[in-house]
Design brief:
The complex is a heterodimer of chains A (621) and B (62). With 621 residues, chain A is an alpha/beta fold. Helices cover 53% and strands 7% of the residues of chain A. Chain A has 21 helices and 11 strands. Classes of the chains: A alpha/beta (621), B mainly alpha (62). At the A-B interface, helix 16 and helix 20 of A face helix 1, helix 2 and helix 3 of B. Chain B: Keywords: Membrane, Transmembrane, Transmembrane helix.
């Protein structure tokens, strides 16, 4: 693939910032270890038991009755966080991958007996685009053309251009791939996909964004899953190959402080292992999400589609459309219902999915929900089907590469869409309470939704040390020793459990970005509660110039308030006492320090510039 | 991947656990000493169950 880019791409896109990362290779999936899994499960149970003891004690024996305005929100926040921990533990409980199977030679190997005639499988690869650089899309097209398959296959590439650009059409003609557009942008990406589905007929559909560059092995490694006729979607991990690697601590300190700095940095790295300054400034690395969270939903058939890098069975996607349409007209006259029933009922042997799709085209159908989170929403509809057990698979191996948000604005847009879309589903069409899913699937979806509600209790955790250090009012009424006797086993066991539960991956970036992104989730929650439509802005693929400090004012405010309250508390303690204690100052000071460190990552991200730009600025200076 | 490399990747958990243990022990030590000084008697046994911590604290303060 890289050879193809070098051979064909010399005349284009030479100045893309990511060109220098072309040789990067994705990490292998985390190896499965039964012993590590057993240790994780043991520690997780111990942690949950210790947590239950602590929460019980908090409610029954340690509320500060003199300050219930503070004590109640605090204990509620702790309880909600504990429930979230319970859900997350269930999510991470075990890893059981779907067995890989040989790629099918004929479509008859992928459907139920008699549902199709013997012929090679046909695949449409969609590259959805709107306003991205056409040369960026050209790279994706060229990589898509390199996709190989061991059997005869009808493989077609289509660029779905919602920007209606002549340049994009020209690139498609030059590259010999299909160009599909429409005269409106209804439904945004979901509408774009629907329009393309109406004009194509492949058995399977590969969804790519403009920057998604599939590897040659993508179909060979994934189509085998569809030998199970109930497998509807295979999601492959998204891998950002342009994430900044940062610089070794010893090199940074050596540059700024000479040999002493280098030696000190080296000593620290000797103790703590390699430390890279400036690595992944936006906490974009999705490995935790795909290799841990999504992959461990495989045992419960609860992995969900995330759009780019996924392969869909057309029949299943069409099913979603028909089901949604049927729901929409459920209260319509009887003749409308019978029309839908005809479309949904099992077919004769000589009528395959394509025939049903053509019939469905006559209706006003939306194969992908017209929703900001159309991917997860469509998966939910599949998982809710009571008549057929559709399966979704998380294929653990990376099969494509793509670009990460390169500035805080793009990052914020992306996270806001995720949060707003998920919360909108939770509040207005909650699959956890609606019929159709298994209990395990409900737990997995609730885990996702609950994580976005976490901003509410995270805000309490951010404000609590500030309130104590400003007012000398603790939310807990107990001896310090009693508090730590119950809190410490829980907190320490929790850390050790997740050390083992995420063995092989660093969860630090994800943890702090989860805490620090509370304003985004709160804004999304506020929009959803007011029934405001979550808009569909395309996540910018190119770095946006400008000052992004306005995006992180809540984090800066938390940092400033924490520092101020710490100074105030220390001043009062060492002058008049003021009801403070040294233990309280230390405990809340460390808690505040943890919060400041988490917030600082987001604030630093607002200032982040690529290495090239930083070098230019330094040379000018 | 070696155990050492896995531990390196999970070091945030280890550092957090160590900080919690050290800071917790330190804070308890300081607070117990304060309590002992104020109450004029040994610090309570934290392992023993407490029926009403707030009442106990009030008694100590009285």
């Amino acid at each position: 693939m890289v050879r193809a880019i070098k051979a064909n791409g010399a005349n284009v896109s030479a100045d893309f910032y990511f060109t220098k990362f072309e040789n990067r290779r994705p990490p292998a999936p985390l190896p499965q270890s039964r012993s590590v899994e057993l240790i994780w499960q043991f520690l997780a149970i111990c942690s949950l038991v210790a947590g239950a003891v602590y929460i019980w004690w908090r409610w029954t024996s340690s509320l500060n009755m003199d300050a219930l305005w503070f004590a109640i929100p605090m204990v509620v926040a702790e309880t909600c966080a504990y429930f979230g921990l319970f859900l997350f533990t269930a999510n991470l409980w075990k890893t059981r991958d779907y067995p890989r199977r040989e790629p099918p030679a004929s479509i008859t190997e992928c459907v139920r007996e008699g549902e199709a005639v013997d012929r090679p499988v046909s695949v449409d690869l969609f590259i959805a685009t709107y306003n991205e650089d056409v040369e960026l899309a050209r790279l994706s097209i060229r990589d898509a053309r390199q996709v190989a398959y061991p059997h005869s296959i009808d493989f077609r590439i289509h660029v779905l251009d919602d920007g209606r650009r002549a340049d994009m059409q020209r690139v498609c003609e030059e590259e010999g791939v299909g160009y599909i557009t429409r005269d409106n942008n209804a439904g945004f990406k979901a509408g774009n996909l629907r329009n393309a589905m109406e004009r194509t007929s492949g058995d399977f559909i590969v969804i790519c964004d403009a920057d998604t560059r599939p590897f040659p092995t993508m179909l060979e490694h994934t189509l085998g899953y569809f030998r199970d006729p109930d497998v509807a979607i295979v999601q492959t991990p998204q891998w950002f190959y342009d994430i900044p690697e940062g610089e070794r601590l010893q090199d940074v300190w050596g540059r700024h402080a000479g040999s002493p700095g280098r030696l000190l940095g080296k000593a620290i790295e000797t103790v703590f292992g390699e430390i890279r300054v400036g690595e992944d400034p936006f906490a974009n690395d999705p490995a935790m999400f795909y290799d841990i969270i999504q992959r461990r939903r495989n045992p419960w058939n609860a992995a969900f589609c995330c759009g780019a890098g996924s392969i869909h069975r057309r029949e299943a996607v069409m099913f979603v459309a028909l089901r949604a349409y049927a729901d929409a007209i459920a209260h319509d006259p009887a003749n409308a219902r019978s029309r839908i029933a005809r479309l949904l009922r099992p077919r004769n042997a000589d009528e395959d999915a394509l025939a049903r799709w053509q019939a469905a085209q006559e209706q006003e159908l939306t194969p992908y929900k017209f929703h900001v989170s159309e991917d997860i929403y469509s998966t939910i509809v599949l998982h809710q089907d009571k008549e057929r057990t559709w399966k979704t698979v998380l294929h653990p191996q990376v099969e494509s590469k793509m670009l990460s948000p390169q500035d805080l604005l793009a990052w914020t847009v992306q996270r806001f869409k995720y949060a707003g879309g998920s919360l909108d589903i939770f509040f207005h069409d909650n699959p956890v309470t609606r019929p159709g899913m298994s209990m395990a699937q409900r737990v997995m979806y609730l885990t996702t939704f609950w994580s976005y509600l976490g901003a509410l209790w995270n805000l309490v955790f951010l404000l609590a040390p500030i309130i104590y250090m400003t007012t000398a009012i603790p939310p807990v009424s107990a001896y310090t020793g009693d508090f730590f006797m119950r809190a410490m086993p829980f907190l320490v066991l929790n850390e050790l459990a997740f050390l083992m539960g995420t063995w092989g991956l660093s969860g630090f970036q994800g943890k702090v970005s989860y805490l620090a992104s509370f304003p985004i989730s709160l804004r999304a929650l506020w929009a959803v509660v007011r029934r405001r439509k979550i808009s569909f802005p395309v996540t910018p693929k190119q770095r946006q110039e400008g000052n992004h400090l306005r995006l992180v004012w809540p984090q800066i405010a938390i940092m400033a308030a924490t520092l101020f309250s710490f100074a105030w508390c220390a001043l009062r303690l060492f002058t008049v006492g003021g009801g403070y204690s040294l233990g309280g100052l230390i405990a809340n000071g460390l808690w505040g320090l943890n919060n400041i460190l988490a917030m600082s990552i987001m604030v630093r991200a607002a200032f982040w510039k690529p290495e090239d730009e930083t070098s230019k600025l330094e040379s000018v200076a | 991947m070696s155990i050492r490399e896995n531990l390196r990747r999970g070091r945030s958990h280890i550092i957090t656990a160590v900080v919690l243990i050290v800071a917790g022990a330190l804070v308890v030590q300081i607070e117990d000493r304060n309590l002992q000084r104020e109450a004029g008697k040994p610090a309570p046994d934290h392992a023993a169950p407490i029926k009403d911590a707030a009442t106990a604290l009030d008694k100590i303060q009285d």
